Design the sequence.
């Protein structure tokens, strides 16, 4: 029996994992509690199923990384021409000399692609050696420190973006159409339309202005570290000082999406019946929103955060360029510009790995947030 | 604050206990673009401990807003005035923090839709123990134990394990039990129940009302029971308040109110309700017109425009609630005439004279729909990416019936019994998974040419449950009605002519053609839905809950319209509805379904007066009757449990797990019920009344 308002309110309620929910409803509801252990949800402390679930997912993603990376290798070897790195050099070299120079780096175009691929692939699998650039620099050593450099920037910026965006969404969704809601939305929409380079430059100017007014060079606007600092604590402090402005500029651009999407997700669940029930049991509106509405509405955001990790890593190009950071984003552009086949493939592999990690983290987050999702 | 009851509502007896909840002059308005919506106006009532005040009214009458106003759960934009005294303390004007100390502790609330009222991501035990810990300093373990006790109290089987279950693992009835447990967790002195059984099946409704009684007995709370169902109120409430356009228009003891309704609206409302025990030949009497808009209310009585007893004075001044000796209070200028019998209540809403003898016309007509052995299953799958089939849901088992032109067949049963699946299988016009469907003599499996297929499509049309959902909001009424005609290839002039003809048929004014569905009332929308179905001149109209989304006073007019159309056009109706009282009015024959099987079928009157299958018996007994004396004196058969999942059908009789008769049988017969599925058998030679039961 379906009554009109019953149907209407079901429509209104936001169910983030509707697929699972519907599934459960149609299949299990009639059985009620009698469905017994078949319906039991493996909780976190039950451990086993969760770990198995993650392992199985990870294995699938690993296979995907392998395929994606190899496809990229073939495409890169096909389209990128490492010889162009030598053509501009003086004295002018013959094509043969150039090919010869490329031979030790497994980039000689005279060698069949299949053979080059096999060398590259076996080196990656056996030695985790991602090859050399056309001028002989090791890709591994380039990537190694760049991952760390970008990592600290991106991790800090992502965390701040999520925290700022979600906090702001809770604040404004609770005050829908109030002054604060309108003002913060206006600001967010404005920032959403500011190009990254402009935002980064604005942050640089603000940093310089602040430094001048403080009369102390507290905020650095270039590079990821000072070369002259030594000792543990001075190094940490120095890194931190370098980190502040680029993190800020990435956060200013990154929080907007979380604010706006989380706000609308939260509005859906704030007006849902279960929040009203929670309030009827004696929670204040703010408590009911935090404990009941927010958690249910966080699920899509958790998924989107995880999947945005690779994009942030490689998308920090402009910020890294403005602040003179030698990060992954900068390397990404550089490898393609310099026809660095192995470098470009390594970046692609890195991106795939980040996607996989993000996806697995998203799965874990969804299971943690929503115990209804059956891990099986 | 002193405990004062305002002079206008003195307690009936001086010895009466002090009310636990007193509402005085409560007014609620919401801002809107058109101006403030006056949802509730000067509502006053008292609730005594252990007693139940029923508030009845149609949608928009302000009954839910009243409940939310008591709870302090209105949106912040709402403007509230008046007083809500809980144990002498005024709740109006308290802030959220102060109110939250009262909610759950002083007042518990039961909501309408149990499917969405519980947080999906927390186990029910956690939600219950959280609710306990909000107001009591309990350890987590103690709260959990108490939660399990509460679940046991509201009749959740195996409460220890169920406490760890999540809401989606429960059926609607079970969830509503949990919501009731939440409401009574901290022993409130008042429980507000807002349409607690509206979303539930009738047999489950009977169980839930029982649980509410338990909760009330356990806590000694006074209850405010808000519902549109007059039958529920008749059986449950001690005192009844009828709301119309935001005001209480009549308030009296249940017996007095149902026995001698005095406000014309109440009289009309009671006349419009189909009664399950009444014969179908009494036509329903609708109240003409629609409730007024609450934005700019006219000066006089808000019911004046629909009131047959209205006089000029009614349009200029709004009558106040005035005491009527021995009856309670009534807000009507003509109350004197009605109360002393000068104006006979029966004469206010006379039955429409043109309603001819119902049903008889079509019996013996051509068989337009023949369904034999219809079966439909759905796979039960598991896994997110690779779906594995883990079972089969037998939505429809073995359904056979015939429908003749001019006749109405009603399919009755609880949700999940396969009624809608049966309808959809017929509407699909393809070979069913099992059995055969014949429409106007053509087997749908062998319809042959595309022209024949189009003809079949024209011959069967459907009217949906929710007219606001089934009409495209971006098409005007004209476009909505023209669409099916275009689909069958009618030209422009034919369409023009046919649309105005259709509007006339469903008694809609020609001025609605340019309007969009959102500008129509619920009743008008359903008329458009019916007109749309009639556009292609079908032989068979399938109606899926055609009136369940409508208010009682409007519902009656749609039921009458359907009867009239059938008489004029010789249509065959196949109706699915959960409201058995409505079914008794519209159907010539009834088929009762349970778990995808027809377990009893027969002529409506025969079946209602002489049900043979124990399930039919229980189903009929579960319908609340809008008559307090009858409702409280008759014997109720309350079925235990709920309809099991159709993925694991019992091998014998499908009803065996819940059958009250089964328990009384001897072992031999029990064995038969368990193992052998009973076939539909005639009660007597030549009788159309057949049922499937080994024991009867």
Sequence:
């Amino acid at each position: 029996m379906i009554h009109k308002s019953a149907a209407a309110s079901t429509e209104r309620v936001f169910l983030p994992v509707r697929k699972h929910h519907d599934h459960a409803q149609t299949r299990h509801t009639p059985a009620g509690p009698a469905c017994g252990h078949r319906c039991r949800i493996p909780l976190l402390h039950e451990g086993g199923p969760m770990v198995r679930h993650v392992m199985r997912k990870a294995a699938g993603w690993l296979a995907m990384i392998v395929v994606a990376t190899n496809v990229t290798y073939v495409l890169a070897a096909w389209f990128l021409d490492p010889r162009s790195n030598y053509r501009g050099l003086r004295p002018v070299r013959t094509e043969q000399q150039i090919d010869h120079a490329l031979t030790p780096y497994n980039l000689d175009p005279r060698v069949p692609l299949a053979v080059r691929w096999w060398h590259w692939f076996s080196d990656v699998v056996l030695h985790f050696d991602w090859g050399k650039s056309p001028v002989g620099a090791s890709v591994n050593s380039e990537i190694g420190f760049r991952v760390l450099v970008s990592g600290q920037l991106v991790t800090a910026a992502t965390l701040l973006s999520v925290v700022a965006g979600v906090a702001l969404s809770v604040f404004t969704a609770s005050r829908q159409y109030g002054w604060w809601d309108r003002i913060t939305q206006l600001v967010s929409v404005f920032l959403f339309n500011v190009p990254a380079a402009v935002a980064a430059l604005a942050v640089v100017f603000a940093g310089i202005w602040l430094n001048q007014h403080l009369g102390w060079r507290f905020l650095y606007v270039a590079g990821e570290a000072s070369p002259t600092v030594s000792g543990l604590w001075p190094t940490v402090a120095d890194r931190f000082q370098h980190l502040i402005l680029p993190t800020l500029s990435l956060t200013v651009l990154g929080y907007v999406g979380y604010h706006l999407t989380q706000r609308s997700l939260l509005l859906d669940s704030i007006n849902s019946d279960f929040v009203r029930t929670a309030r009827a049991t004696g929670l204040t509106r703010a408590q009911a929103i935090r404990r009941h509405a927010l958690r249910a509405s966080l699920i899509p955001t958790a998924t989107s955060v995880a999947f945005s990790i690779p994009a942030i890593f490689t998308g920090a190009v402009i910020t890294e360029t403005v602040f003179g950071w030698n990060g992954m984003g900068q390397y990404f552009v550089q490898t393609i510009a310099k026809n660095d086949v192995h470098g470009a493939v390594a970046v692609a592999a890195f991106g795939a790995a980040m996607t996989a990690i993000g996806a697995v983290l998203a799965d874990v987050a969804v299971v943690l947030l929503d115990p209804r999702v059956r891990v099986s | 604050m002193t405990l004062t009851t305002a002079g206008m509502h003195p307690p009936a007896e001086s010895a009466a206990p002090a009310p636990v909840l007193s509402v005085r002059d409560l007014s609620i308005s919401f801002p809107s673009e058109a101006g403030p919506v006056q949802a509730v106006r000067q509502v006053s009532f008292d609730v005594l401990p252990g007693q139940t005040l029923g508030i009845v009214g149609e949608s928009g009458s302000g009954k839910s807003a009243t409940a939310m106003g008591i709870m302090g759960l209105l949106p912040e934009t709402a403007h509230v005035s008046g007083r809500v005294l809980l144990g002498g303390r005024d709740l109006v004007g308290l802030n959220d923090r102060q109110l939250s100390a009262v909610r759950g502790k002083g007042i518990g609330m039961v909501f309408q839709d149990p499917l969405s009222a519980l947080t999906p991501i927390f186990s029910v035990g956690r939600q219950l123990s959280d609710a306990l810990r909000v107001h009591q300093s309990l350890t987590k373990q103690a709260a959990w134990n108490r939660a399990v006790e509460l679940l046991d109290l509201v009749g959740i089987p195996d409460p220890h394990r169920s406490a760890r279950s999540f809401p989606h693992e429960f059926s609607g009835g079970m969830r509503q039990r949990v919501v009731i447990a939440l409401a009574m967790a901290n022993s409130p002195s008042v429980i507000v129940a807002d349409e607690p059984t509206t979303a539930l099946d009738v047999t489950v409704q009977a169980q839930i009302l029982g649980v509410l009684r338990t909760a009330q007995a356990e806590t000694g709370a006074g209850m405010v029971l808000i519902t549109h169902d007059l039958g529920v109120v008749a059986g449950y409430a001690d005192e009844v308040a009828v709301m119309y356009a935001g005001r209480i228009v009549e308030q009296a003891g249940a017996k007095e109110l149902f026995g001698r309704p005095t406000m014309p609206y109440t009289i009309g409302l009671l006349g419009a309700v189909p009664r399950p025990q009444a014969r179908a030949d009494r036509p329903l009497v609708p109240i003409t017109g629609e409730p007024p808009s609450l934005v700019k209310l006219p000066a006089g009585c808000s019911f004046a425009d629909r009131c047959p007893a209205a006089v000029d004075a009614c349009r200029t001044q709004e009558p106040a609630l005035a005491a009527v000796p021995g009856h309670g209070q009534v807000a009507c200028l003509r109350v004197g005439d009605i109360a002393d019998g000068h104006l006979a209540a029966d004469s206010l809403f006379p039955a429409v004279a043109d309603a001819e003898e119902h049903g008889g016309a079509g019996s013996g007509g051509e068989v337009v729909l023949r369904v034999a052995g219809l079966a439909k299953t759905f796979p039960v799958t598991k896994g997110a990416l690779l779906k594995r089939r883990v079972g089969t849901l037998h939505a429809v088992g073995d359904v056979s019936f015939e429908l003749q032109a001019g006749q109405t067949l009603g399919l009755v049963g609880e949700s999940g019994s396969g009624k809608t699946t049966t309808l959809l299988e017929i509407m699909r016009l393809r070979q069913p998974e099992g059995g055969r469907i014949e429409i106007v003599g053509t087997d749908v499996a062998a319809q042959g040419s595309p022209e024949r297929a189009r003809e079949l499509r024209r011959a069967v049309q459907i009217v949906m449950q929710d007219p606001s959902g089934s009409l495209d909001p971006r098409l005007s009424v004209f476009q909505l009605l023209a669409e099916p005609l275009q689909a069958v290839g009618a030209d422009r002039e034919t369409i023009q002519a046919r649309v105005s003809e259709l509007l006339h048929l469903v008694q809609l004014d020609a001025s609605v053609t340019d309007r969009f569905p959102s500008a129509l009332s619920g009743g008008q929308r359903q008329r458009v839905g019916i007109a749309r179905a009639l556009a292609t001149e079908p032989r068979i109209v399938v109606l899926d809950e055609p009136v369940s989304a409508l208010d009682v006073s409007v519902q009656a007019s749609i039921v009458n319209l359907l009867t009239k159309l059938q008489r004029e056009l010789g249509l065959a109706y196949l109706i699915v509805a959960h409201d058995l009282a409505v079914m008794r009015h519209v159907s010539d024959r009834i088929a009762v379904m349970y778990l995808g099987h027809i377990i009893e079928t027969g002529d409506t009157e025969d079946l209602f007066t002489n049900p043979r299958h124990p399930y039919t018996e229980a189903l009929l007994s579960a319908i609340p009757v809008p008559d307090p004396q009858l409702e409280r004196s008759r014997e109720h058969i309350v079925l235990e449990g709920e309809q099991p999942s159709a993925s694991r059908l019992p091998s014998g009789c499908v009803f065996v797990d819940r059958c009250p008769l089964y328990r009384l049988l001897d072992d031999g017969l029990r064995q038969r019920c368990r193992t052998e599925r009973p076939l539909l058998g005639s009660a007597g030679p030549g009788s159309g009344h057949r049922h499937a039961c080994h024991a009867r």
